[in-house]
């Protein structure tokens, strides 16, 4: 602690009282000669005086006075030495009783002066003892004051010297203690000596301080209360109390310092307060504010500093000091208030102070670093680079002004290094990092055997080296960073304010080594850091994240589930603890996202995937473009997008992922070790895109990028993983091109990757599986037996190396089973089939870490394999376990398209389950329950849980205000939490929170309108016939799934040959079994609901038959037909029917799209609307509404309509049925999709009818979506319409008018009952069929057409009357135009 200046008036000079008068007269050469003659005479007199003579002491004194005067003119050290010698002799021979205090004090002053010149401490020690003796024999009050001043000054000199030595010796001791080479016994002995010496110095400091306080107290007591000198001594006493406070941290000393300074201030009577007093009191109050946070103290400190500055003239030597004091207090007040004006004023005050100080003045060097610190603080607040640059420039100026041996130079260099590290964070320029490291080394080298704050210098150098390791990948940098971190840790005491930060920094560095021992230590250090960090500290989130990262690294090393869960918890706590504007918040978000992403990969928890994408976006948006972590956050966000693409197949996700990975790679140095990781991710994204598009260009790009990553990869673990990806890409290319070089490339890549893994490496099992898969696919291509045997052996080794609770356990045994299945297909050996069944069983039953989706996938394969072996009972057991899991495949927070994508992965399993249930001899009702449970995409539960009547549009949110948005947010949050709870429970218990028993269905109520026919298509085909309460099973032995699929691939479902095949093999036997063998009498038409499954869902069962003028062997001539996706849907329709009275709407909403952007004109669409107006609205009380033909307006009117009629173009999306849509004016930007209809809820006021007079509104193109029956028709049903009329494929524009007219006439004449809708469409279909039969020349569509409704199709024939998207291979001359129309409803 620097000595505080006490007074402007007290003497601090050598007291040579007897010589002053003589010096004033001896200025000429003659006088100098006279002085020399006098000295010579005095020498002679001393020499002639016997040693014991009583006058000898007096003569020595006189000689001393003359010599002192001579030294005053020469400043020669020999003269000073002789003066001291003579005065010492004089005092030594003078009896103690006769000694005069003035002589003792004079000698003390001379010794002090020699100490100042030579630094020899024994002179200062002797001077103090002499001054003490002088004080003891002084009775006069004035002389006491003079001696006290000298004694106080000498004691303060020794105190400062001892304080400095304590710091230096302490650093020396610390540096030797941590020096690895410091081992031999002599050195250890020296360390003990240093420790003892430091202890002695510390004791000396406290002894001198105590005496200084006593001296000041005595001096204060010598003056009356109104004395100005008393005020000076009170100021000095306050300074000494403050010095002791700085040593002891005892608040009592600080309070005494403030009390003494205030008393001194009160004694100032003339209004001229000493500047030093104002300054000292300001310092004391500022220090107390740091302890107590009392706002009044800092306010007063600022005012006192201001007053001290005001009282100092512009040319006063103290003005610079006062400017600095004011800057200090303003800086502290800024830390409290956050007022930038105060920080700016502090900067300006320090700048002025530095300008005032001439070059060469040590104060300039002392003040520059603090000015640099103020600019750095301003940079920290504003993030304006110019302030950081100014801070670095000022710090460099300070360092350059310091001498090589200046003890503060190391600290200054370290500060510059740290500033450059911060600059590197914002610029990502490697030269900034290199300069920071070089200066950090220079700072360390400039520290002789250690110094105060040496741990900070070491720590900062370690940070720089670690950052360079991350950038360049040199292991020596990481090793040195860890060594420096350990060294710094040994220097900090338990209560060191930065100890937690040092612990976490070291933990972070240890995380990077990959060593389990280091990871364990990192976790331990992270826990220590959190334990010593108080709650609410701004660094706490960072410490939490450092521990979370260590736990994640250890989880992937040894896969301990507890580490993963704790990492997630710590990451969440960090995000929750950090303020929204905290500088480190993006990093905390990234850590939590990493933890959740890891848990998603380990458990398949979909809520984790969605949440980590959200967190990744937040983190990325909070990262500046030039931030060094930007590339890492781009890669992280890209990985999340890629994973969501893999889960749900949204092409926008993979395109975004590719862009993010590419940017991450582009902004990263090629020599950086992380570059290979980014390239691997980029290759994986192109590879994933290829998996969907099957465009070979994507695969070629992936291969090239993987190879680039391999070429520059330095990390063995990353290299093995990248080689695995490269091998997989080669293998997929081989499967397409069948080039031997690709197969060899795959084998080589997989083998090198396997060889790089140790026997106990967690990644070895995956490498074995990769190589095995390659051999298996080689066998499939060329049939080499050696390949399949090698594959089986490698797969078995991989499976055996994977623990049961490992997430990959299910995959390993599943692929082993598939290998045996492939082998069985060739050998037909029962042993191979049994091996496949055993491996699938192991995968399904003994994989507690599997996700629901994985378990369902294996269950489907296992059941198929058991069917091959006709092991019905075991297959049935699997079915009973697996079917209830389907409930878990549709989390509430997912978009409907994403639910659909998940369920589509298990298409056909429900049909297999129903078939197995029959084969094992169970009751048919159980088979139906499995079928219903396994095929549902959306259920009544999903509708009832839709928030606020469905997903709200932006318009609705705007209109309903903030409350609606809050409700929606709460609902989504609650659904996420519920799904998370369910996922956790399932992961721990492998069971379901919801009951696994199928829902009870009141089939008698479902069939009150007529029979329900469920046609199950599997390895066996059966029709389930519901009539009243009776359920019968009718086997359909003449059809098979393979045969139906073959016909489906041929297309043209409306051909006569297809209708006749349907009649002969399916509908004819079913109607015969139901007793409908003849046309009905008296127009009493029976009503049948058809529920086809699998590929049969695409066929027109209602139109099946032998259509001739004399035949009645047709469905249309025996019954009316309706369709339903499930029995539940029929029941839901009846439930809506009971709510009819709640709907008061009498509106018919018509959208007639005669002209659609980008599509062919439909001239009959307007006529269709006119027919409804004439036939229906004029004869009823209904109002015709024709809104603006845009999505927003149509959706708005849908909520109030009773009938919705659309005449225009439709579009069927093959890859994503939820994107199928009706084309309105703004369809290119905002189409009216299936997903939009699914997200509205009209159940409170259910509309009566949706008539979709467009092509393919009931068409399903994708095989994987057949079970879910997702198309525009079912979307309208689920939105709340009781009835929906649509089409299975393209329809003629002109025929649409006829169908519409007859149907609406039937609805009108039938009093708008439920039956009237189906009857109206049935009559329309029969009339057009009969017209076709009576006009043979028109029975082939396409030969005489003059226009049609189509989209994005150019037909060499005229297609203007077709309302569809059709391709050339779909076109068929025998397409019957009355067949496509279907009814869904009750």
UniProtKB/TrEMBL annotation:
Gene3D superfamilies for this protein: Tetratricopeptide repeat domain (1.25.40.10)
InterPro entries membership: CHAT_dom, TPR-like_helical_dom_sf
One Pfam assignment: CHAT
SUPFAM superfamilies in the cross-refs: HCP-like, TPR-like
Organism domain of life: Eukaryota
Domain CHAT residue range list: 1058-1385
PANTHER family tied to this protein: FUNGAL LIPASE-LIKE DOMAIN-CONTAINING PROTEIN, KINESIN LIGHT CHAIN
Protein name per the record: CHAT domain-containing protein
Source species: Hyaloscypha bicolor E
């Amino acid at each position: 602690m620097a000595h505080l200046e006490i007074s402007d008036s007290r003497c601090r000079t050598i007291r040579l009282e007897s010589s002053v008068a003589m010096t004033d007269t001896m200025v000429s050469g003659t006088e100098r000669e006279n002085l020399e003659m006098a000295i010579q005479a005095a020498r002679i007199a001393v020499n002639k005086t016997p040693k014991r003579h009583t006058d000898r002491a007096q003569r020595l004194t006189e000689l001393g006075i003359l010599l002192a005067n001579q030294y005053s003119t020469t400043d020669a050290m020999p003269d000073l030495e002789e003066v001291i010698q003579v005065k010492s002799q004089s005092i030594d021979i003078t009896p103690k009783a006769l000694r005069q205090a003035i002589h003792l004090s004079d000698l003390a002053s001379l010794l002090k002066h020699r100490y100042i010149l030579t630094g020899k401490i024994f002179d200062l020690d002797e001077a103090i003892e002499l001054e003490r003796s002088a004080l003891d024999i002084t009775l006069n009050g004035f002389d006491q004051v003079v001696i006290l001043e000298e004694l106080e000054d000498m004691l303060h000199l020794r105190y400062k010297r001892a304080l400095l030595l304590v710091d230096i010796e302490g650093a020396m001791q610390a540096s030797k203690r941590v020096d690895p080479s410091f081992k031999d016994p002599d050195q250890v002995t020296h360390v003990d000596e240093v420790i003892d010496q430091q202890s002695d110095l510390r004791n000396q400091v406290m002894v001198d301080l105590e005496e200084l306080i006593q001296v000041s107290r005595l001096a204060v007591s010598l003056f009356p209360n109104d004395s100005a000198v008393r005020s000076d001594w009170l100021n000095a006493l306050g300074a000494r109390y403050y010095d002791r406070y700085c040593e002891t941290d005892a608040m009592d000393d600080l309070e005494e310092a403030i009390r003494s300074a205030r008393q001194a201030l009160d004694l100032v009577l003339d209004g001229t307060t000493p500047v030093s007093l104002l300054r000292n009191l300001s310092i004391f109050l500022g220090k107390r504010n740091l302890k107590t946070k009392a706002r009044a103290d800092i306010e007063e400190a600022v005012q006192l500093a201001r007053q001290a500055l005001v009282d100092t003239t512009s040319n006063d030597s103290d003005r610079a000091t006062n400017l600095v004091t004011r800057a200090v207090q303003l800086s502290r007040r800024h830390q409290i208030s956050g007022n930038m004006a105060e920080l700016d004023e502090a900067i300006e005050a320090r700048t002025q102070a530095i300008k005032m100080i001439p070059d060469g003045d040590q104060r300039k060097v002392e003040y520059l670093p603090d000015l640099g610190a103020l600019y750095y603080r301003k940079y920290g607040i504003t993030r304006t680079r110019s302030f950081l640059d100014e801070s670095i420039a000022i710090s460099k100026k300070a360092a350059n002004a310091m001498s090589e041996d200046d003890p503060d130079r190391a600290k200054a260099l370290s500060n510059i290094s740290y500033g450059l590290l911060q600059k590197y964070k914002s610029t990502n320029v490697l030269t900034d990092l290199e300069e920071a490291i070089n200066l950090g080394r220079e700072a360390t080298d400039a520290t002789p055997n250690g110094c105060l704050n040496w741990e900070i210098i070491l720590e900062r150098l370690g940070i720089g080296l670690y950052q360079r390791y991350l950038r360049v990948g040199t292991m020596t940098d990481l090793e040195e960073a860890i060594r420096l971190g350990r060294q710094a840790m040994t220097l900090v005491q338990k209560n060191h304010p930065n100890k937690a930060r040092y612990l976490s920094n070291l933990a972070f560095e240890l995380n990077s080594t990959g060593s389990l021992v280091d990871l364990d230590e990192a976790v331990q250090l992270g826990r220590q850091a959190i334990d010593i960090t108080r709650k609410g500290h701004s660094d706490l989130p960072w410490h939490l994240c450092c521990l979370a990262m260590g736990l994640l690294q250890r989880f992937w090393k040894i896969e301990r589930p507890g580490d993963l869960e704790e990492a997630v918890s710590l990451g969440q706590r960090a995000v929750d603890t950090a303020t929204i504007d905290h500088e480190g918040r993006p990093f905390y978000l990234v850590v939590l996202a990493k933890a959740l992403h890891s848990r998603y990969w380990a458990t398949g928890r979909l809520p984790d995937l969605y949440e980590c994408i959200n967190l990744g976006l937040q983190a990325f948006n909070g990262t500046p473009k030039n931030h060094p972590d930007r590339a890492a956050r781009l890669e992280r966000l890209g990985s999340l997008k890629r994973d969501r693409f893999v889960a749900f197949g949204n092409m926008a996700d993979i395109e975004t992922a590719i862009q993010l990975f590419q940017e991450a790679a582009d902004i990263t140095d090629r020599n950086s070790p992380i570059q290979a990781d980014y390239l691997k991710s980029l290759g994986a994204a192109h590879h994933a895109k290829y998996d969907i598009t099957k465009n070979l260009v994507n695969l070629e790009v992936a291969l090239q990028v993987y190879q680039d990553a391999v070429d520059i990869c330095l990390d063995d673990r990353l290299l093995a993983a990248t080689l695995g990806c490269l091998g997989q890409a080669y293998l997929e290319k081989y499967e397409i091109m069948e080039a031997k070089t690709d197969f060899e490339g795959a084998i080589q890549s997989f083998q090198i990757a396997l060889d790089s893994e140790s026997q106990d490496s967690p990644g070895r099992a995956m490498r074995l599986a990769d190589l095995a898969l390659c051999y298996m696919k080689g066998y499939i291509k060329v049939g080499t037996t050696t390949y399949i045997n090698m594959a089986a052996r490698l797969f078995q080794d991989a499976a055996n190396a994977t623990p049961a609770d490992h997430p990959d356990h299910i995959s390993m045994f599943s692929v082993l089973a598939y290998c045996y299945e492939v082998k069985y297909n060739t050998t037909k050996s029962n042993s191979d089939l049994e091996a496949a069944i055993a491996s699938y069983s192991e995968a399904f039953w003994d994989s507690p870490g599997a996700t629901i989706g994985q378990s369902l996938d294996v269950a489907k394969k296992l059941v198929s394999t058991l069917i091959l072996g006709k092991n019905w009972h075991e297959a049935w057991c699997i079915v009973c376990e697996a079917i209830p899991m389907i409930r878990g495949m549709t989390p509430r927070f997912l978009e409907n398209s994403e639910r659909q994508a998940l369920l589509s992965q298990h298409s056909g399993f429900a049909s297999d389950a129903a078939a197995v249930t029959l084969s094992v001899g169970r009751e048919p009702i159980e088979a139906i329950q499995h079928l219903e449970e396994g095929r549902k995409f959306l259920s009544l539960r999903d509708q009832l849980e839709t928030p606020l009547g469905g997903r709200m549009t932006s318009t609705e949110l705007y209109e309903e205000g903030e409350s609606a948005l809050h409700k929606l947010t709460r609902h989504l949050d609650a659904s996420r939490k519920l799904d998370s709870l369910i996922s956790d429970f399932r992961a721990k218990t492998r069971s379901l929170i919801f009951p696994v028993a199928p829902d009870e269905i009141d089939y008698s109520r479902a069939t009150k309108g007529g029979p329900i026919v469920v046609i199950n298509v599997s390895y066996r085909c059966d029709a389930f016939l519901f009539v009243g309460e009776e359920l019968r099973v009718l086997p359909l032995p003449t059809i098979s799934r393979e045969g139906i699929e073959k016909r489906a691939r041929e297309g043209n479902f409306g051909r006569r040959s297809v209708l006749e095949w349907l009649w002969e093999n399916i509908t004819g036997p079913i109607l015969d079994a139901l007793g409908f063998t003849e046309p009905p009498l008296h127009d009493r038409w029976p009503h049948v609901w058809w529920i086809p499954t699998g590929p049969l869902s695409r066929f027109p069962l209602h139109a099946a038959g032998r259509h001739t003028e004399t035949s009645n062997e047709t469905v249309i001539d025996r019954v009316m037909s309706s369709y339903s996706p499930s029995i539940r849907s029929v029941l839901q329709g009846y439930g809506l029917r009971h709510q009819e009275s709640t709907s008061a709407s009498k509106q018919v909403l018509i959208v007639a799209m005669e002209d659609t952007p980008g599509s062919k004109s439909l001239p009959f669409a307007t006529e269709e609307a006119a027919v409804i107006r004439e036939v229906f609205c004029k004869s009823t009380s209904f109002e015709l509404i024709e809104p603006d033909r845009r999505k927003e307006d149509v959706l708005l009117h849908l909520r109030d309509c009773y009938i919705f009629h659309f005449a225009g173009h439709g579009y069927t999306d093959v890859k994503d049925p939820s994107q199928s849509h009706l084309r309105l004016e703004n369809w290119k930007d905002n189409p009216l999709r299936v997903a939009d209809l699914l997200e509205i809820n009209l159940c409170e006021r259910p509309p009566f009818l949706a008539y979709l007079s467009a092509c393919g509104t009931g068409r399903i193109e994708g095989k994987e979506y057949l079970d879910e029956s997702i198309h525009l028709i079912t979307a309208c049903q689920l939105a709340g319409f009781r009835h929906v009329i649509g089409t299975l494929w393209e329809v003629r524009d002109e025929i649409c008018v006829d169908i519409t007219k007859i149907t609406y006439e039937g609805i009108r004449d039938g009093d708008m009952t439920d039956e009237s809708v189906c009857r109206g469409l049935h009559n329309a279909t029969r009339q057009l069929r009969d017209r076709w039969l009576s006009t043979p020349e028109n029975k082939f569509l396409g030969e005489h057409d003059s226009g049609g409704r189509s989209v994005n199709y150019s037909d060499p024939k005229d297609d203007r009357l077709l309302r569809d998207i059709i391709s050339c291979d779909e076109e068929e001359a025998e397409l019957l135009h009355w067949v496509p129309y279907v009814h869904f409803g009750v």
